[in-house]
Write a structure and sequence with these properties.
The chain has one domain: Rossmann fold, CATH 3.40.50. It is 38% helix and 22% strand. The protein has a 6-stranded mixed sheet, with helices on both faces. α3 links the parallel β2 and β3.
Length: 191
């Protein structure tokens, strides 16, 4: 199986400088244009089905891919972004810095859990299970549209590739699965 793992396009929370995570924001016009460019790059990959996080920014990215590639879309709840930001979710970063300076310090490590957030162990378990379930299907070529958190978790925990320096909007990764997952190619990200 080939999995084309995709990060969603630019969202309103990105340009408004908000803490995202579980925040449900839309794609910007630029995010929609980024996705249209991605359609061209994925159009000859033989994708049979698209799986997506239920969060709007990922789902809107997946809907554009689904429509333009004429492929079925399935929303998978466990592909959603981690609620890493807890009480900071949706808050402008400038406001959060003044209001919750101690919580901001805890964000330096993905292993920390701030008030109201999802712990890393639970997040890791659901992300790995979601990818395992997709890989167990009888499909040969799929796209998975999700977020930086699940992609980072997959690279860290499954592929054992360590940490990203950056993951751009609409970055994509070609992953091969033949009993184990293997990175073939990546575009728009740096380890």
């Amino acid at each position: 199986m080939k999995i084309f793992l995709v990060r969603h396009g630019e969202s309103t929370g990105d340009i408004e400088r908000r803490y995202g995570g579980d925040y449900d924001d839309h794609l910007t016009d630029r995010g929609r244009r980024q996705t249209k460019k991605l359609v061209i790059r994925l159009s000859r990959k033989g994708i049979q089905k698209i799986f997506s996080s239920p969060r709007l920014r990922a789902k809107e990215t997946a809907e554009i891919l689904s429509k333009d590639l004429d492929r079925e879309l399935e929303v998978v709840n466990d592909l959603r972004e981690r609620n890493f930001y807890g009480i900071l979710t949706g808050m402008k970063k400038s406001t959060a810095k003044k209001k919750y300076p101690d919580e901001i310090k805890k964000l330096k490590s993905y292993k920390n859990t701030i008030e109201g957030a999802e712990d890393y162990g639970s997040f890791k378990k659901r992300v790995i299970e979601a990818f395992s379930n997709i890989a167990a299907s009888d499909l040969r070529f799929v796209a998975v549209v999700t977020h930086g958190g699940p992609i980072s978790c997959f690279f860290r925990e499954v592929l054992k590739k360590g940490e990203f320096k950056n993951i751009d909007d609409c970055a994509f990764f070609e992953i091969e699965y033949d009993g184990k997952f293997k990175l073939i190619e990546m575009s728009g990200a740096e380890l």
